[in-house]
Amino acid sequence: MPEQLVFHYQKQFQLESGASLPGFQLAYTTYGQLNQDQSNVVWVCHALTGSSDFTDWWGELFGEGKLYAPSDWFVVCANTLGGCYGSTGPLTVNPETLQPYYHSFPQLTNRDIVRAFDLLRQDLGIAQVHTLLGGSLGGQQALEWAILQPEVFENLIQVASNARHSAWGIAFNESQRMAIRQDLTWQGNTAEAGIAGLKTARAIAMLSYRHYTCYEESQQEPGNSITDDFRAASYQVYQGEKLASRFNAYTYWLLSKAMDSHNVGRDRGGIAKALERLKAKSLFVGVDTDLLFPVEEQEHLHRLVAGSRFALLHSGYGHDGFLVETAQLTQAIREFYETETVKHIHYENTEV
């Protein structure tokens, strides 16, 4: 069974903004057993509203008889810094004030977040990671981390993500934050601040996560006499209520800003120059109906990263297809591994 653990870092942690945290903790999940030579580590980075329990939201990839069986692999996933599933975030008590951070929690970038992940990796004594895997926001973090620590990662699998967050994606995120700002409770310092705005933000987000086809197939009215109280309308309300029951507006705001900040080329001479640092064998995966992270973004990465592979998932779910089309994703990853193994054997035989 997956094991839930907590990593404590008790030193000052400097952030890219110039602000700092007086230490932090990361909640993380492990699954399986680390083998003797530590060659079986898979590290997963979760999406915007995900938790460290990857078996909950990507369960078809992990488990006995699945792609990553615990008998073969040691899988790790940490709830992102700034999160609300056990890691230090806005609702955490600031040890310097003895009050929750709330609005005073400093802004984070993906670079800050993966530096925190890397401190956990070092604490676990993991020198090499066989596969770094992430989708959406987690895919951004995975790419950033693989550039930051190129010697650590053997394989990088980035799913439905990009090298720099697009103007389109930033506009979607800002529209959601506008909804939170319109909630008058957002000005206060309470755990529930901005919760009504968060519900609207989530409804907006769903339009970027899904696709026209998905809504038509699942939410269109069966008859011709309806003039109000549409399924699609109640579905939007339901999605907002559902997220608000498990999340908070502070973390949503914070992590959407981290997503906006994503640009692996920042202070590295641009994206192409930054990608030259990658040493991991790389697979970039897109979803053909993704409106938020369109396929052009993964194809662009594939063109820039020498020797990389590209795989396309077919889905009516839009961006969320990366969580739904697990059979296709499993096949793409298996083919990626098999191709690299064949190449490795070929090189060994050539040297002999």
UniProtKB/TrEMBL annotation:
It is an enzyme of class 2 (transferase). Its main location: cytoplasm. The keyword DNA repair does not apply. Signal peptide: none annotated. Pathway: Amino-acid biosynthesis; L-methionine biosynthesis via de novo pathway; O-acetyl-L-homoserine from L-homoserine: step 1/1. The active site is at S136 (nucleophile), D290, H319. It is found in: Cytoplasm. Pfam families: Abhydrolase_1. The keyword Amino-acid biosynthesis applies. It comes from the Bacteria. Its EC number is 2.3.1.31. It catalyses: L-homoserine + acetyl-CoA = O-acetyl-L-homoserine + CoA. Keywords: Acyltransferase, Amino-acid biosynthesis, Cytoplasm, Methionine biosynthesis, Transferase. Transfers an acetyl group from acetyl-CoA to L-homoserine, forming acetyl-L-homoserine. Homodimer. This is Homoserine O-acetyltransferase.
